[in-house]
Each structure stands twice: as structure tokens, then as C-alpha cells.
Amino acid sequence: xxxxxxxxxxTLHPISLxxxxxxxxxxxxxxxxxxxxxxxxxxxxWLNFCVDKxxxxxxxxxxxxxxxxxxxxxNLVMNxxxxxxxxxxxxxxxxxxxxFSWEALLYGTVMTGKMIIILAVFSVLSQDFDPDRSMLLLxxxxxxxxLLVSLSLRMIPRLSQEMGSIMEVFRIRxxxxxxxxxxxxxxxxxxxVKALLITSLESSWDTAESLxxxxxxxxxxxxxxxxxxxxxxxxxxxxxxVALLASVVLLLGKKGFYTFYPQIGPLFNNAAPLGSQFLLIxxxxxxxxxxxxxxxxxxxxxxx
Length: 304
Description:
The protein is mainly alpha-helical and 304 residues long. 67% of the residues lie in helices and 5% in strands. It folds into 2 domains: 9-129 and 241-303, no CATH class; 143-213, no CATH class.
């Protein structure tokens, strides 16, 4: 079976990857212009497709679709500030008169786009941001906090894996958790909880023994594999810096904002300088181009 190839983003230094994703989040929260939000949405979805063909992002999106649709519907029904009406109802039971406006629909759509961008960012973060590598950044200043955060991040996935193994063992022994009356099902689940508790206690004991064997907290910490900035990290950081500088120029010029109420304005009446827009997109597209190059030309990764 062919092993899954490691993505280019996973090889980046935690600081360079985190700075890029935080920049995308910051721009998403600051801007509200539909064109800017659409550009960020296209870029971050493109990045997800480059990493794993957007499989994890689509799984997140399927779970979030009801909430996204509900956001648009609630804003369309409850927000009555718009003046360009799609349809009007004069008499409705319990609601009275009700108007659906293009302003409310566009505003709800933009807010939904922002939530999708946030989902896409966290999809990339969960795949390519290794918590163990990131915790190395805190080792010198807050080693105990880094250990606590690392153990906390591992707890739920590890318990889920152990519970699956325990359930498989019980099924091999002939215990079916889905058959019988409700009382019998609850009694069977008690065996599962008991086994999971014992396994968790044994795992915590093994972790404590491992820390003691390594003399944790007894002196200055050492690093088995130090994190180093490579040319690829400098390229991503330069791209993020260029995008950040361009966004500051746009914000100082009051670009990237849009008026929804009381009437939607034209999309291109307050055009931003093309140079700043180009630099913003260029800085944000750098990791995507590197990811594409990593997949098409494997020798490129060895050069940077």
C-alpha cells in the first residue's frame, strides 16, 4: 500500500505556518467586503485541496452546513433594516408583516463565507500544525505549561483510540453492546467504562514513570531535534509580511469595507490600489504555490 505523502506545510517551522494562518484569520475578521471575503475563501479552499484534496475540510463542512444555512435564514428573517426587498408578506401568523431584503441576504452570505474560511483554516491547522513541535517553542520559558497542553491535546484522540480497541476485544469475546434491553445495554457499557478507566490510569502511570526516568524538571531542558528556520520558512514569512504590509496600507486607506445597510452599495465604487491588492494576494498565495510545487517537483523541497 502506498504511504501518504507528507504535505509541504507539515515541514514548515511552527512559527511560519502559524503566522500565515493567523494572518488569514485576522484578515477574515477585519474585512467585510464581499470581494475580499471571496478572495480569502478561494485561497484557503485551494490550499485545502492542495493538502489532502479537501477531504477533512469537506467533512467539517458537512457538519457545519445546517448552522451555515441557519445563519443566512435567521439573518434574512430577523434583520429588517434593508430597503431593497426580494419579497414582502403583509400578514403572517404570529409574525405579522415580513420583508426579505437583498441587504440581509448579502450580509448573511458574507458572514457564512467568513465561517467557512475559519473552518478551512482550522482544517489546515489540525492536519499540518504538529502540537508536539509547537510545544517545543515553549520549552525554555514554560516547560510545564507546554507539557500540560501537549498531554491535553493528546487525551481525547488517545481515549477514542483506546475505546475502539477495548470494544473490539469485547466483541471478539462475544459481548455485543447493541443487543438486549436498555438496562442490559447500560450494564454492558459499565464494563467498557471500567476497562477504559483502568487503561487510562495505567497510561498515566507510564507517563509519570517516563517523566521521572528522563528527570523532568530536574535541570535545564535539552532538545533531541532542534527546530531550525530553513529557506522555505523565510519564503513563507516574507510572503506573510508582504501580505500584512499590503493589508495595513488598504486599512489605512479604508479599503476592504462595505456598506450593507440601509442599501447595498456598488462593489467597485471604492476601488483599492491595484498594487496593494496584488501584493496582498501574492503574499497569501506563496504557501499554496510552494505546496503545488512540492507535489509536482519533489526535488524542489530538497533545495529549500
